Amino acid sequence: MTIYNWNGDVLTEWKLLQDNMSAKEQAWKTFMSTGRIPSSIDISPEVLSSWQRCKDRGMDPYDEHVTTVPLHVLSEKLKNNNWLIELVRPILQETADNIRDSGYRIDLYDKELCLLMRFGKKIAGQDSERRELIIGESHAEADAGTTSTNLAALLERPVQLMAYEHYKTMCHGLTCASVPIFDASGNLLIVLTVEGNCWPMHKHTLGMLVTLKYYIEYLISKDIRSYSGINEKTISSVIEMIEEPAIVVDNTGKILFSNTAAQSMLGEGWNSLIGFNCETIWGKNPFREVLNSQHAVSNRKVVLSIGSAQSAFFTTIKPITNDNGKLIMAIGVFKKALTGKSSGAACAQKFKAAYIFDNIIGKSPEMQQCVKLARETAKLDNNILILGESGTGKELFAQSIHNESNYSSGPFVPINCSAIPHSLLESELFGYVGGSFTGSKREGQVGKFEAANGGTLFLDEINSMSMEMQSKLLRTLQSKTIVRVGGTEEISIDIRIIAASNQDLWQLVKDGQFRDDLYYRINVISIYIPPLRERTGDVDLLIDNFIYNFSKQFKRDIKLNEDARRLLQSYSWPGNVRELENVLERCLVLSRVNNNNVISISDICTYNGIFEFYQKQDNQLILSDPPQDESAETSDAGSVLTDYEKLLIIDALEKYDYNIQATAQHLGIARNTLYRKIKKYGIKQG
Ligand SMILES: Nc1ncnc2c1ncn2[C@@H]1O[C@H](COP(=O)(O)OP(=O)(O)OP(=O)(O)O)[C@@H](O)[C@H]1O
To answer: In 480-624, where does DSSP find H-type helix?
Structure first.
């Protein structure tokens, strides 16, 4: 065969090569039949040793069977070598494109010599359907006989084999050059093989391949995954020991590894995320912050896009540096936050906050100021402390804040700390695992912290919490995790705390009854709701609002007479809005019982607190306005008042020796009114 260069000159060098090939053919044939080679023919000792090993194994040189690894093994190999494949793919692809017309192609083998990737096209004239190498084919010597691939791996250096140097006849039409690729510690990572038709043979193939080898090894040495001491295997085994999903990124933010838990978290497509920058996949995320600052973040809430869904996690990320203090990677551990769809959604249904700011009645400057502050702070995620006497509307505010906050889609879970015995408060708040104490449910119970996850936990009357519980609450607020009573598992929680106290909490701190560190934690923002008696004009608004609501509820058109209104206005309302609401509700019920549509003083005074209040007054109000609806006075409720009025009059008459003028003056009523009442009550004049 005559080989020409492109000027048409005969290449004498090729002639030599051809002769050389003929000699090798003869040597191969002799070896296969006798186990020896003619002494005149030069076969490299490494090739000869390989032939010998193959022969010793009883390998048939004419056998064209191709050994492939099982599919699941191949898939595992592809997974484990993904980062390397991605690293070298662009280089090999470009090289293969450049040598496309030469009839050569590039194969990438893993360190066990299994074909993982092929770059380039079919080799004309050589690749019969059978010979066409397939991904997963083993090029180990025991399977494929002597090849450049297994010799390069064995000898740990570049190797070129031509035609008859291969053990098996199925490779005799090929020329192959292989280079082993090592990591910085000298561990074999992959083998690259360029193979093509035996004729024409390019001598520079091996040179090109060696250049590629050094370039790729340089790239690998810069890649953290091949750092000595922290190779893939080490990192993989370390992060595999972490039960939660764990992800490792290099110092540029590129995702290097993930453990099994992370792979199930990331779903089916996790494999394709390896090698990508975490920002490309998840956008803004705390890995970048850790890489930039080289400071760890702990229990940071992140929302990651996984497939088409978004999931919330708490992540702790630590930067890892080498001996010289150089940042080399960051490891992040993720814990699924029980928000929204899981416990949150169910609880959000169960624990709904009914009130919004528009439901808060009050035009007094004091109240307007409170609402303004609460609205402004609702959107901030800080803990809030609401202070105020009992019944001032603290829970109403807490619900309104929740509904206008970032946690509004989650549940609003109230718990009154004073209503639950100290011994039970812990399990009520933290929940318990099944059978952790006598009387506990077998299946355990979710506590208020978990129930409130993704939403707001309203700790009412926090002032009554024991010191021991205060410490546990503080720990929870700091770590954002809880452990159920009797359990060990740490559960991450993401909740907003709104606490309320009807006592001066700071005074309790000074008295040593409330932890100052907890006080500072819950008191990031505080809202003081003034008592009703200090809210000028609000009583009237609240009266109208409650009468309107109850009228609607009882389907009656109820009115309040002026004196009754004045009575309500002058009362000091120690029970605040709740007391006012109760009084009016009671009056509305009475009015229905008595079939009376106007609420008068007599109705209101059926309420002990107000009745006593009048006992301490100078009684002007009560006496100046006799009940307009006489029928009301005949009722049980009315009789209390009339009895009382009668007694007052008798008292005063006796005091002033039945002097009508003096008695009327003392009572603050007109003489005629006094006469009318004396008559009405049948009081005998002394
Ligand atoms: N400004 C207001 N407008 C309308 N209703 C109000 C207002 N303030 C309080 N209320 C009503 O008064 C009642 C008591 O309010 P709430 O329970 O919020 O008070 P609280 O301060 O949390 O009481 P406690 O300290 O006893 O828990 C509720 O029925 C609430 O709807």
So the answer is: 505-510, 516-522, 538-554, 562-570, 576-593, 601-604, 608-615, 620-624
Quick: pLDDT tens for 128-168: 444 444 788 899 999 999 999 999 999 999 998 988 999 99
Ligand 1: centre distance to CA 577 (Å): 6
Q: What is the pLDDT of residues 405-421, one digit of tens each?
A: 988 888 999 999 988 88
Per the model's pLDDT, the better-predicted residue between 643 and 425 turns out to be 425
Cα 607 to its chain centre, rounded Å, is: 52
Q: Which of 105, 122, 131 is CA-nearest to residue 205?
A: 105
CATH superfamily membership of 1-222 = GAF domain (3.30.450.40)
Q: Which two tokens stand for residue 212?
A: 């590629």
Is 396 near ligand 1, meaning CB less than 6 Å away? Answer: yes
* Atom 13 (ligand 1) nearest CA: 578
User: 232-336, what's its fold?
Assistant: Beta-Lactamase (3.30.450)
Provide the 8-state DSSP code for 274: T
Q: What is the pLDDT of residue 232?
A: 62
Q: Whose CA is nearest to atom 29 of ligand 1?
A: 578
**C-alpha dihedral sign at 594, 596, 598, 602:** negative
Average pLDDT, the chain: 81
CATH number of 533-681: 1.10.8.60
Percent share of the chain, pLDDT over 70: 81
Q: Determine if ligand 1 sits within 6 Å of the CB of residue 388.
A: yes
The percent of residues above 90 in pLDDT, for the chain, comes to 32
The amino acid at residue 102 is: S
User: Quick check: CB of 502 below 6 Å from ligand 1?
Assistant: yes
Token output for 271? 């494999």
Instruction: Write the ipTM.
Output: 0.98
Give the separation between CA 389 and CA 679, rounded to whole angstroms. Answer: 45
Helix/strand/coil for 193? strand
Q: DSSP letter for 297, please.
A: E
Kindly give, in sequence order, each residue whose CB lies less than 8 Å from that of residue 437, ignoring residues fewer than 6 positions away. 427, 485, 486
Q: Tell me if 424 sits within 8 A of 415, measured CB to CB.
A: no
For the Cβ of 578 lying below 6 angstroms from any atom of ligand 1, the answer is yes
Is residue 390 lining ligand 1, measured as CB closer than 6 Å?
A: yes
Question: How many angstroms does the Cα of residue 392 sit away from the middle of ligand 1?
Answer: 5
Residues carrying CATH 1.10.8.60, the chain: 533-681
Give the CATH architecture of domain 344-530: 3-Layer(aba) Sandwich (3.40)
Residue ranges, comma separated, of all CATH 3.30.450.40 domains in the chain are 1-222
Q: Mind listing the pLDDT tens digit for each residue in 183-220?
A: 876 789 999 999 887 765 566 777 888 888 988 888 88
**Residue 541 Cα, ligand 1 centroid: separation in angstroms?**
14
DSSP string, 463-516: GG--HHHHHHHHHHHHHSEEE-BT---EEE---EEEEEESS-HHHHHHTTSS-H
Q: Is 107 in the pocket of ligand 1 (CB under 6 A)?
A: no
Higher pLDDT pick, 343 / 76: 76
Side-chain-side CA neighbours of residue 106 (13 Å): 26
Instruction: In whole angstroms, give the CA distance from residue 333 to residue 259.
Output: 10
Q: Give span(s): CATH 3.40.50.300, the chain.
A: 344-530
- For residue 180, cis peptide bond before it (omega within 30 degrees of 0): no
Which part of the chain is CATH 3.30.450.20?
232-336
Whats the size of the chain, residue-wise? 686
Q: How far apart are CA 455 and CA 347, in angstroms?
A: 9
Handedness of CA 451, 453, 454, 459 (dihedral sign): positive
